[in-house]
Amino acid sequence: MTYKTIFKGRLEFGSPKSYDKVLKMYQHRVESYYKSDVLLKEDEIFDEASSSLNVPRFITQGSEKSWRNTINLLEYVAQFAIAGNMGAWMTEEGKILHHGIVEPRSDKGAVQAFLRGRELAGQEGKEIEAKEALSKAIEKYERHAQAYERRGQINLLLKNYSDASYDFTKSIDLAPGNPDAYFGRAKVKLKQDEIKSAIPDLEETIKKSIPLQPIYWKARRMKAECLLKLNDDKGALLDLKLYTSRAFKTDDPNFQWKRYMCYLYGKTLLELDQPGEAIPALDKALDIDTGIERASEADILVLRGKARKAAGKTGYLKDWQSAAAQGCEAATALLKKK
């Protein structure tokens, strides 16, 4: 049986000498260990010019054995890499069966400095130490795109927006296929209230990622919000529709935003004079009992009442009465005008 498999990422070996060594080992293991039963072919992934194994995005059908062989092979060559990572997914009808991240974990100085910086970055109060470790990784390997991107995240957290922008841009220059750097730069622009200029970076984030990655949906959400702030309701509709149609697992960071995005989708449809389409979106928002509290239940009820009335449907008074019972002044005012 075969499954849809996706590979995306890059492993850098730092020098032509290391690259040649890894290429020969790769060729040997494919022939001797795996009898050519792997999903990534040598001539499609090795890039001599950059001394890297580069897979912008590769999608194919493969057996579970071929998947395991390919992952094992990538893990083997990753121990000789100095930077980068490789994401891999095996899916069936949109459901993830296997997912793995392959990355360097050797005792090389640049590798260890990066791993330490990344670990410290996740600890509150350790931002300066994390930044120093990531700077050390860059000193040891000046083309370390991931270290630049992670350092950019820390500078963003520390509100060093100019430094953060530099780091994200440098990361993009070195590894233009990494969505995290575009996303980080977009966040810097939003912090500086440069809403319009953030949108191209969010679009690049979407292009450079896949729907199986949370960052893909984060970028769609933020892009929709940007377009709404720019009063481009029609432009925001597609991202809102796709986001609200997606089923997120509870551990996905996007899960907490779905209720609010359903509210925004309904609100946007109503403003575009599509009340009939707005009602199901608002129904969905009310059915979700957890999430980011940017719109209360009363807010959603008021809006659904407006959509129902505009669409010539019954039930709008009940919605407003329920919202008024929760102390919503807007609902009370609407009931007085009915």
Describe the model:
By secondary structure, the protein is of the alpha+beta class. The chain folds into 3 domains: 2-102, Alpha-Beta Plaits (2-Layer Sandwich), CATH 3.30.70; 107-208, Alpha Horseshoe (Serine Threonine Protein Phosphatase 5, Tetratricopeptide repeat), CATH 1.25.40; 213-338, Tetratricopeptide repeat domain (Serine Threonine Protein Phosphatase 5, Tetratricopeptide repeat, Alpha Horseshoe). Helix content is 61%, strand content 13%. It has helices spanning 16-32, 42-45, 64-78, 109-121, 127-140, 145-157, 161-174, 179-191, 195-208, 214-229, 233-245, 258-271, 275-287, 297-310, 316-325, 329-337, and strands at 2-12, 46-47, 52-63, 83-92, 95-102. Strands 2-3-1-4-5 form a 5-stranded antiparallel beta sheet. Helix 4 packs antiparallel against helix 5 (127-140). The model has no long low-confidence stretch (mean pLDDT 96).
- Number of helix segments? 16
Rg over CA atoms, rounded to whole Å, is 24 Å
Number of domains: 3
Strand order of the largest sheet: 2-3-1-4-5
Structural class, please? alpha+beta
CATH architecture of the largest domain: Alpha Horseshoe
Amount of helix: 55-70%
CATH top level class name of the largest domain: Mainly Alpha
Helix/strand order: EHHEEHEEHHHHHHHHHHHHH
